[in-house]
Amino acid sequence: MSEMSRRTFLWITGGSSIALATDQPRKLVNKLIPKVIPPEEITPGNWTFYATTCRECPAGCGMHVANRDGRATKAEGNPAHPVNRGALCPRGQSALQGLYDPDRVTTPLYRTGRKLRPKSWQEAFDSISNRLASGGRVALLSSLQTGAQAEVLRAFVAAFGSARLLFYEPFNYEALRAAHQQLFGLPVIPRYDLEGSDFIVSFAADFLETWGSPVRQARQFSDGRAYRDGGSPTRMAYLGPRLSMTASNADHFLQVSPRQLPVVAAALLRVIMDRGWNRNDLGPVRPALDALLKSSPLPALDQEVLLTVGRAFTSAHRPVALAGPQYGGGPAATGTALCAALLNYAVGAIGATVDFSRPHALSSSARDAELDLFLSSLGPQDVLFVVDANPAYARTAAAERLQGAGMVVYLGSLLDETAELARWVLPTDTPLESWGEYQPEPGVDGLMQPVMGRLYDTRGACDILIALARQAGRPLRTARGTAPADLLQWLKERRGFGGGDQAERGWQAALRTGGAWPATPPASGTAPAPRLAGISFQAQRPTAPARIEDVELWPWASIMLYDGRLANRGWLQEAPDPITFIVWGNWIDLHPKKAAALGIESGDLVQLTTVAGSLRAPARLTTEIHEQSAAIGLGQGHSALGKNARGVGSNAFMLLDAAQRAGSFPPCRVSRVAADAPRPIRTALCREQLHRDLLQSVPLSVLRAANPPKEEFDLPLPEGYHADRDLYPPHEHAKHRWAMVIDLQRCIGCGTCAVACYAENNVPVIGPELVADGREMAWLRVPPYRVPGSPWRYAWLPLHCQHCDAAPCEPVCPVFAAVHNEEGLNAQIYNRCIGTRYCSNNCPYKVRRFNWVNLEWRKPLDLQLNPEVTVRQRGVMEKCTFCVQRIRQAQYRAAREGRKLQDGEVVPACAQTCPGGVFTFGDLLDPGAQVTRITRGDPRRYHLLHELNTKPAVTFLRRVDNDVV
């Protein structure tokens, strides 16, 4: 008889013998981790926060990543970082899904034939270094890098006598840089400062989504739009072919086809000049403007609207003009950007809202011609290193050119389309496992540090290159002549933290801060002098008589997927598009008139064809796209990358190539395909309010009246109850009555709050099939509703559990799983719930979710789960809890410190990450709390479905209709 340990004996005699009898494969896994010599930086059960820099896009926001017992579980914004001030976008929230991606490459791979086979690191280093030592010519293509990483990459190619290094980004703002080169001699992307800007003109620049630095711009825009007594909110005009999320936030939307954008921009500039509204002289530009306006007929526009926009733009104190899109170049896009730059010069915005002294890091990314030359130069003697870039996906014909290199070595974390072409695939750390730095603009030096230990046998990309150079007999050296062993040493030396106690203390302080930047933003630099005399617009190429099937293509960048690099993340695939609320795929937008002429109906499978290629996707018929255009979202249609991305949607990049990019907006042919189309999956079927007044608004003039009207409002407190109409008695709350205020005027519809809720509360990703069946699990949704009386305006209603004081869900639960707790929360006790779903049937807000199936957390995604939140199983109802785990943590912390809980100390995940500052959370029993002041006194307050008398704890603040000029 084998010996039985005391632990096993107690486990079995404690009743677990039943489990062994019924589940024999079960193994004893409940092991204690010895802490005889505890780790210095880990306290079991405590949260540790690491400051780092987000690298999910080139914006470079600061992040705090929460770590519990060695696992990173939540990404949040760094409040001290000057770019994002504590907020994040959906892509930043999803960084952890990149870290825990089940499809990550975990070991070096070598291609033999068509298959990639595992190899050791030593085998990889031996093979590649021997090729380098034997005279292989080095070429290196990388995603955008700055600071120490950029220095290592430059040193690597220089060590082998090469200068072929490009930083490749699919969105390189080529048109904007070309325009600034022509006007100012500066081919850069300036810093656009919307802080205090009172009028914005956007020429198809979706600056609230993917253009520029979206989180910073969204925060500045929402601050400007916020209602203030006596102040005027920021106003915006948007000119473009498609009603994007940014366009729907505008006061004026002028629908203009892609090729007409520069003409309309020139017309606006001409209106300003003719009326003498410009502050700076534009006389030398007049002949070029006249030539452009004569080359293309001005589209039919409401001239009064154009006049209104011009007057408002020139009379504003801090106006700014923005030009998109961020991909491609060519006459139309460059002409539009040039007109936007001239508008900024005309009103004195250069040096104020447009700062050329702080160019964006993307200014150093490769232009299209540079990339074409780079790819064309590859030959059999070349060893091409590709670092975290995927040109084979985003660039037609790139795959064929990449295969012209003698050896392709891919350094990255996923097997994307470019990695599938490589001889060697070397797995790299993700940004959350890496050391490094990133400088989105001069003066902002963000540090990157590992927020947890490595999951797999991966290495930093720069560490791999340093090791390869050393093994090939070409050790890399810094500017000081030293040869660091890895990127961390290189980084410390570059930043002046080489050695000694004082240097180490400075290094630790920088790590805690997340980098280095000035305490107050520096003043704008001197405005560059324009070269007006040399301005010229390239005339539009005359087009052949248009056929009925011809349209102008308009690819647009998704706020969730960006350029496609993040398409394998379930949170982002399941997060709805802000306008259509479609998930898991993309679609083609066509105008109903164009569709009727071609015999296309909504949902039909449609083919788009350009000189570069073709794709198929379901059609969505809408007046939100110009009649002569067809729009499709970028970022989908991967043939590799991972399970969540492969085969989902269509790749719009395949319609673009180098020859076409010269035109930026290519001619495209539309045709109906006689085949079944994949049905677009929507999680909100209706965008009309149907006279229910869900999303309410109030004119600004009414708010400014001496006695604004007051409407009936019942507080979710005993004083809000009335014996003559209330069926249930009021609740008495001993210490707290938690409540929330949602300012609809600030909400831009980005959906960041919903993704943060997924991350914080272990909300599962259920996949396209179950979502299509109506089984979505999101606790918080931000559906769009059409603004009454305006065909071009949508507004968004963040909606989660309202934590009603007279909650209809509570009395119908037969097992008391839905209960009202002592602090006013409508709690859901999972181990009581038997799944009758009576509570969901009785909830007028429809914010409860039922687990229909047991969902699998693909390993290692289970490591991201928040240990403070229960993981639910099939048959259980769930919903928003106001992040009760955060409430309890704040209460425990205050109790340990022997003090009262402070207002603002409890911040739910949605409120913490919101770029617009939409959410305010606090205790209604605290008379000094901000949530109390707003709930009791704001003239815009209302309760959703107030007539049902549920007394919600969530107070909405009405949107403000800006009817005052």
TrEMBL record:
It holds the Pfam family Fer4_11. Residues 738-769, 792-824 form the 4Fe-4S ferredoxin-type domain. InterPro entries: 4Fe4S_Fe-S-bd, Asp_de-COase-like_dom_sf, MoPterin_dinucl-bd_dom, Mopterin_OxRdtase, Mopterin_OxRdtase_4Fe-4S_dom, Prok_Mopterin_Oxidored. It comes from the Bacteria. Residues 47-103 form the 4Fe-4S Mo/W bis-MGD-type domain. Gene3D superfamilies: 2.40.40.20, 3.30.200.210, 3.30.70.20, 3.40.50.740, Dimethylsulfoxide Reductase, domain 2, Formate dehydrogenase/DMSO reductase. Keywords: 4Fe-4S, Iron, Iron-sulfur, Metal-binding, Molybdenum, Oxidoreductase, Signal. The keyword Cell division does not apply. The keyword 4Fe-4S applies. GO terms for molecular function: 4 iron, 4 sulfur cluster binding; metal ion binding; molybdopterin cofactor binding; oxidoreductase activity. Belongs to the prokaryotic molybdopterin-containing oxidoreductase family. This is 4Fe-4S dicluster domain-containing protein. It comes from Geomonas paludis.
